[in-house]
Amino acid sequence: MATMITSEINESRVKSRALSVLETHRIWQPPVVASRLANAYGFEVISAVFGPENARCVAGYIDVPNKKIVVNAEDTPFRQNFTIAHELGHFLLAHHEDADFVQNYSVMMRNTCAVEPTPMELEANVFADNLLVPAMFYESVLIITLTQRIKSSLVFLECTQGSSVTGGDLSNE
Ligand SMILES: [Zn+2]
Q1: Angle in degrees, 0-180, between the axes of helices 119-132 and 11-24, rounded to the nearest 10
Q2: Which of 62, 94, 126, 128 could disulfide-link 87, Cβ–Cβ 3.0 to 4.6 Å?
Q3: What is the C-alpha separation between 143 and 138, in angstroms, rounded?
Q4: pLDDT at residue 111 tops 70
């Protein structure tokens, strides 16, 4: 399947892949711990100190044959989580089956160091975004907020009705 990668990214395919991963692992709310998901797909996640030349530019990489994802230990946990999700994305989107990917090896470069990102790199970023903060999380937060508003309105109603009952004439009913 060397011709699998087109010159542009297939955003809906990437989004639905991320969503199916969350569904499979029954993750309905944040936080999404990418290393746990990586473990679930058989990857060992290694936090490593890169050499001075690589530390500045490399956030992490994936070694599919040896089932390893290596992240830059000097990055923040938040950044490492994103890197792991990005690298896992390469695997779950089957980028490793592409000859170019294997040849150029998947090293995640920082924005400041990266040359023009390839479609596969963009896809892995979209995957990571949608894995870590999918739209459904916003929706669930919205539902919780609405539910809380409705509940507090009910409490308010109960209070006002309650006070009118206690303060009013009970013989009305
Ligand atoms: Zn990448």
Answers
A1: 40
A2: 62
A3: 9
A4: no
In this structure, of 86-90, 137-141, 143-147, 164-168, the range with the lowest mean pLDDT score is 164-168
Distance 14 CA to ligand 1 centre (A): 14
Residue 86 Cα to ligand 1 midpoint, Å, equals: 6
Cα of 7 vs centre of ligand 1, distance in Å, is: 16
Q: Of 78, 30, 83, which Cα lies nearest the Cα of 58? A: 83
Going through 5-106 in order, the beta strands assigned E by DSSP cover: 44-48, 58-63, 68-72
Give 103 Cα–ligand 1 centroid separation in angstroms. Answer: 13
Q: What length is written for the chain?
A: 173
Residue 9 alpha carbon to ligand 1 centre in Å: 14
* 13-48 pLDDT tens trace: 999 999 999 999 999 888 899 999 999 999 999 999
Q: Contact at 8 Å (CB) between 143 and 98?
A: no
> pTM to 2 decimals?
0.74
Dihedral over Cα of 105, 106, 109, 111: its sign: positive
Question: And the tokens for 19?
Answer: 């969503």
Q: What does the pLDDT average to over 113-123?
A: 81
